[in-house]
C-alpha cells in the first residue's frame, strides 16, 4: 500500500540517520496518514480514503 495522501499527494521524505560515529544509514519519514470515511462529492457516497493530518486540520476533507 502506498504511503501517500490521496488529497495533497504528500509522500515519505528520505534522509540519513547520522549517529555520533557519522556512519550514515538510510531512513524515511512517513506522513501521518489516517484512514477516514469521507464523501466523494457526488451524493452521499462515503468512501474510505487515506488522508494526512494536515489536510484534516485544514478542512480539505468533509467527513
TrEMBL record:
GO cellular component: ribonucleoprotein complex; ribosome
A family per Pfam: Ribosomal_L28
GO BP annotation list: translation
Transmembrane segments: none
Tagged with keyword Ribosomal protein: yes
Keywords: Ribonucleoprotein, Ribosomal protein
InterPro entries, alphabetized: Bacterial_rp_bL28, Ribosomal_bL28, Ribosomal_bL28/bL31-like_sf, Ribosomal_bL28_bact-type, Ribosomal_bL28_sf
GO MF: structural constituent of ribosome
Family per similarity comment: Belongs to the bacterial ribosomal protein bL28 family.
HAMAP family linked to this entry: Ribosomal_bL28
Entry protein name: Large ribosomal subunit protein bL28
Amino acid at each position: 500500500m502506498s504511503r501517500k495522501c490521496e488529497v495533497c499527494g504528500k509522500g515519505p521524505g528520505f534522509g540519513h540517520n547520522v549517529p555520533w560515529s557519522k556512519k550514515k544509514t538510510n531512513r524515511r519519514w512517513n506522513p501521518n496518514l489516517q484512514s477516514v470515511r469521507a464523501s466523494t462529492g457526488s451524493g452521499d457516497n462515503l468512501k474510505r480514503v487515506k488522508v494526512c493530518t494536515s489536510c484534516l486540520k485544514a478542512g480539505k476533507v468533509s467527513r
